[in-house]
Design a protein that fits this description.
Dihydrodipicolinate Reductase, domain 2, about 35% helix, eight-stranded mixed sheet, six-stranded parallel sheet, Rossmann fold
Length: about 350
């Protein structure tokens, strides 16, 4: 029986996710079965573009539908918590766009709920499923770089005027929008929780971060330096330095198609062509996380070993500490969650 996906919201990231999925030549028998949006006209138009059979005018109707097995949550950041709760409580597995939640307390609450329901839940940190990331991980594990001691990652794009980034009521935050990629990269390499987090940043008039620099210190004198900027385009690559060499994930490092070794040798990881124009760079790569979700669900797993619940909790904890240090506060921080 095919695994049937329901798409929550008909925005840009949902468009790219579905395009990536439907363009992939070997996705098995999984299908995009439904889409829901607050505006049914948008959902209807989305369904026509992507040839989706079922359209829902509320998220509640799709959550209750017997036509859906797993939900992809592509809504705005502040809506993630409620939407994930809705679908988990309706017996659906969930893949939720990053950040899974606004803070650690929400993240822990959702993980507790998914565990109690014995349902799959994963934060959509799609970088973790990039062929280039997997190749880099193998290179580190086989000792080619020696002992990895230092990581740096830079993500800067001029998006500070976008509502989803600039408005606090929409969960705006350069840290949550693009900064999460730099933090998850450091965690992908070092695995351990940092022993110290140091951050500085710049906020807009609404108290939303636009620029930040983060230093993560780990045991064994290991360190990551991360730069996030929503006002400028920077050299968006990531470097891993070991006692025996260096490797660079080239721009865009969050889902790269090229890995450069210290000797100048390059490894390339081309992506499949999309059937529709995309909004975000290299986002045909979004399909790899969908394939992981399907594999895990068919095995009866409730989390992926490449993006575990503990990893999401660590990312949320680091983000909370960074926000605290640079002075970014959400109303959700004042609420206790079950």
């Amino acid at each position: 029986m095919p695994l049937r996906w329901g798409i929550v919201s008909a925005g840009k990231i949902s468009h790219d996710f579905v395009t990536a999925f439907n363009s992939f030549p070997d996705r098995g028998d999984a299908v995009i079965a439904g889409v829901a949006a607050r505006d049914k006209n948008r959902a209807t138009d989305f369904a026509k573009i992507h040839d989706i059979p079922h359209v829902f005018d509320t998220y509640e109707k799709m959550a209750k539908s017997s036509e859906i097995d797993v939900a992809y949550i592509g809504s705005l950041n502040p809506q993630h918590y409620d939407h994930v709760c809705l679908f988990l409580n309706s017996g659906k597995h969930v893949l939720c766009e990053k950040p899974l939640c606004l803070n650690y307390k929400q993240t822990q609450s959702l993980i507790n709920l998914a565990s109690s329901k014995k349902l799959f839940l994963m934060e959509a940190v799609w970088s973790r499923f990039s062929p280039a990331y997997i190749a880099l991980e193998k290179e580190i594990s086989n000792g080619k770089l020696g002992e990895v001691k230092y990581v740096d990652a830079t993500f800067g794009v001029p998006i500070a005027n976008h509502d989803r980034v600039s408005k606090k009521e929409l969960g705006g935050s350069a840290l949550l929008d693009i900064g999460i990629y730099t933090i998850q990269f450091a965690q992908y390499i070092f695995k351990d929780d940092p022993i110290k987090v140091t951050a500085c940043g710049e906020l807009n008039d609404g108290g939303v971060d636009e620029v930040s620099t983060i230093v993560l210190e780990y045991s064994g004198r290991r360190r990551a330096v991360l730069n996030i900027n929503a006002t400028l385009r920077l050299l968006n690559n990531a470097n891993v330095y070991g006692t025996h060499g260096k490797v660079t994930l080239e721009d865009p490092f969050h889902f790269p198609t090229k890995l450069t070794h210290g000797d100048g040798k390059e490894d390339n990881f081309p992506l499949h062509p999309p059937k529709h124009e995309l909004f975000f760079e290299n986002s045909t790569g979004l399909v790899y996380q969908a394939l992981e979700v399907e594999k895990c669900i068919r095995k009866g797993l409730v989390e992926s070993s490449r993006m575990t619940h503990r990893m999401s909790l660590t990312l949320a904890k680091i983000r909370d500490e960074v926000r605290k240090q640079i002075g970014v506060h959400f109303d959700a921080d004042d609420i206790d969650y079950p």
